[in-house]
Specification:
- It contains 19 helices and 26 strands.
- It has 607 residues and is α/β, with parallel strands linked by helices.
- It has 3 domains: 231 residues, Aminohydrolase, N-terminal nucleophile (Ntn) domain (Glutamine Phosphoribosylpyrophosphate, subunit 1, domain 1); 196 residues, Glucose-6-phosphate isomerase like protein, domain 1 (Rossmann fold, 3-Layer(aba) Sandwich); 148 residues, 3-Layer(aba) Sandwich (Rossmann fold).
- The strands form 5 sheets. Strands 3-2-4-1-10-9-11-14 form an 8-stranded antiparallel β-sheet, with helices on one face. A 6-stranded antiparallel β-sheet has the order 5-6-7-8-12-13, covered by helices on one side.
- The longest helix is centred in the C-terminal third of the chain and has 23 residues.
- Bound molecules: fructose -6-phosphate (F6R).
- Fructose -6-phosphate binds next to helix 9 and helix 16.
Length: 607
């Protein structure tokens, strides 16, 4: 989603701003722009389309030593040049870039229009430019503080004044900003990825804080002027610059990283000899675990699917009632938050507004909520204050792959801990632990020989509609497979519980419709066979993901993709991978922009 970068230092700002925008491209955007303070005035370029276009347009631009830049993902107003950021005040002396949403936009806009302000865009952000101008009497910080006090909503803000070529003002409320402290330069960004090439020393701004940034550092205060203390933190190694490492796309690279990323999610956490596990950040003793009466996993998209998978395992192995909730639904429906429930907020980015909103709702109602987060130091991780990092490493492709398997793995580790405080014996615990530590090798084995993905992609690429089916643990996998195909190949499809398919979606099947059936060995396998026959009887062509060695099932399908045999509760970690590869191959055939699919954003920081 939107990205902010600002630079002030002893080097030309423009190349650094463009490079920062490139580092944030993976987040998804539809337009980009930059503003510099140069020779006592503002120099602004912005347009729709890729950062590459902007880079060409600003080539040979001024060598100014400070500037702000932005990638926009449209919320208020269409994808147009006037709507791209930066936005300026009427006199073109103040430039603003903004992430977030102004909720009281209409009222503020009407007031400003009544004052005679003429708006040049449809965005909410432009309000900031005019509002700051209205309160500006010569002090940049005071003007920003006075303006934000009128705004209801979320913002990460960088503001530049033509009159003040030595400072940039930043303000945050609900939308992340991090300040990188370099040597003779300071860089502000909404994403540490845009900073790490220059410095690892950072300050994470907190809500309601305003920073005055100069080439020598940052002065941070609360909006009301009171002082705050900030430790300088060091960016984790996980922020090392993301490269494709010989793969054609980040998505393919990330799919292939899954044996290592799952290994990292397990490392130091499984005690095979004790038949148990330990998650340091969880802050739960065996007594606390024993007191958990139910588990609720909350997330969006792929992270929600990880929650669905984990909930099945928690009920299955620990016999504790568990369910998954879609964060955007949960947070707005006045949910019941039982004091004896353990809540998990699952998020790759740790910035998803809906998941963060759900976390805040749980906390407000006195609930116990833990983060299951990939990005270290992200807002959800900080807000929860306790939980589990999944350590999948930076996920750059918009479509989530390795984060899913890492999230599921981390939650399965929790499941083992929870189950051992209940009905899982020492020997059973050891078996579960062995199955978990065996997963990375099985993933490696599968990826070394992924089966007939090309043939399956051939069948799917020309389809008008595709159905993904699975039962039990394979149902969330079917949902995830369908989500991937929609996201990057834009093919109409849906995931369904295989047994429920005959209650409606079976009507969608016609001669040649591809049906992707996920049916590894386990308690649901035989039932899946009946569903397979039902769809074939309607002319569907079945692409079957099954356990290696299951020859009976293999011979029933048009295309069969074997994955190494595993225990049922870890099977999603294997069966999801051919579906990730399949959507990748289909998108490749259709010439889609795989790492940056249309309309999508990596980190969805708006409701
Ligand atoms: C799927 C995808 C999205 C995210 C969702 C939640 O490929 O990328 O569905 O899973 O937006 O994002 P996080 O996990 O960052 O909270």
């Amino acid at each position: 989603m939107c990205g902010i970068i600002a630079y002030i230092g002893d080097q030309p700002a423009l190349p650094r701003l463009v490079e920062g925008l490139r580092r944030m491209e993976y987040r998804g955007y539809d337009s980009a722009g930059v503003a510099l303070v140069y020779e006592d005035s503002l120099w602004v370029r912005k347009d729709v389309g890729r950062v590459d276009n902007l880079a060409r347009a600003v080539e040979g631009g001024p060598g100014a030593l400070m500037g702000i830049a932005h990638t926009r993902w449209a919320t208020h107003g269409g994808i147009t040049q006037p709507n791209a950021h930066p936005h300026l005040d009427g006199e073109q002396r103040i430039a603003v870039v903004h992430n977030g949403i102004i909720e009281n936009m209409n009222a503020l806009k009407a007031q400003l229009q009544a004052d005679g302000v003429v708006f040049r865009s449809e965005t909410d952000t432009e309000i900031f430019a005019h509002l700051i101008r209205k309160h500006y009497t010569g002090d940049p910080r005071e003007a920003v503080c006075a303006a934000v006090k009128h705004v209801r909503g979320t913002y990460g803000l960088a503001v530049m004044f033509a009159d003040h070529p030595n400072v940039i003002v930043a303000a945050r409320n609900g939308s992340p900003l991090v300040i990188g402290l370099g040597d003779g330069e300071t860089i502000l960004a909404s994403d540490p990825q845009a900073i790490v090439a220059h410095t690892r020393r950072v300050i994470y701004l907190r809500d309601r804080e305003v920073a005055v940034i100069s080439r020598d550092g940052a002065n941070v205060q609360l909006v009301d002027g009171s002082s705050v203390g900030h430790e300088i933190e060091l960016l984790d190694n996980e922020y090392d610059l993301a490269e494709k490492g010989g793969f054609a796309h980040f998505m393919l690279k990330e799919i292939h990283e899954q044996s290592e990323s799952i290994e990292r999610a397990l490392r130091g956490r499984i005690q095979v000899d004790d038949g148990n596990a330990k998650l340091g950040g969880l802050e739960m003793s065996p007594r606390d675990l024993r007191a958990v009466a139910r588990v609720v996993c909350i997330g969006c998209g792929t992270s929600y699917h990880a929650g669905l998978t984990a909930a099945l395992a928690i009920e299955d192995l620990a016999r504790v009632p568990a369910r998954a909730e879609i964060a955007s639904e949960f947070r707005h429906r006045h949910p019941i938050v039982p004091p004896d429930a353990a809540f998990f907020a699952i998020s790759q980015s740790g910035e998803t507004a809906d998941t963060l909103g759900a976390v805040q709702e749980v906390m407000l109602k006195g609930g116990d909520v833990h983060g299951v987060v990939n990005v270290v130091g992200s807002t959800i991780a900080r807000t929860c204050g306790k939980g589990v990092y999944v350590y999948s490493g930076p996920e750059i492709a918009v479509a989530s792959t390795k984060a899913f398997t890492s999230q599921v793995t981390a939650l399965l580790v929790f499941t083992l801990m929870l189950a051992r405080t209940r009905n899982l014996s020492f020997e059973q615990g050891q078996r579960v632990a062995r199955h978990l530590v065996g997963v990375p090798d099985k993933v490696r084995e599968y990826l070394a020989d992924p089966g007939p993905i090309s043939a399956a992609a051939e069948l799917v690429a020309n389809a008008r509609y595709v159905q993904f089916l699975g039962r039990g643990y394979s149902y969330p996998v079917a949902l995830e497979g369908a989500l991937k195909l929609k996201e990057i190949a834009y093919i109409p499809c849906e995931g369904y519980p295989a047994g429920e398919m005959k209650h409606g979606p079976i009507a969608m099947l016609e001669e040649g419709t591809p049906v992707i059936m996920v049916a590894p060995r386990g308690s649901q396998r035989d039932k899946a066979i009946s569903n397979l026959r039902e769809v074939q009887a309607r002319g569907a062509k079945v692409i079957l993901v099954h356990s290696a060695g299951d020859d009976e099932l293999r011979d029933m399908a048009e295309i069969s993709i074997p994955v190494p045999q595993t225990a049922e509760f870890v099977s999603p970690l294997l069966t999801v991978i051919p579906l990730q590869l399949l959507s990748y191959e289909v998108a490749l055939r259709l010439g889609r922009d795989i790492d940056k699919p249309r309309n999508l954003a990596k980190s969805v920081t708006v409701e």
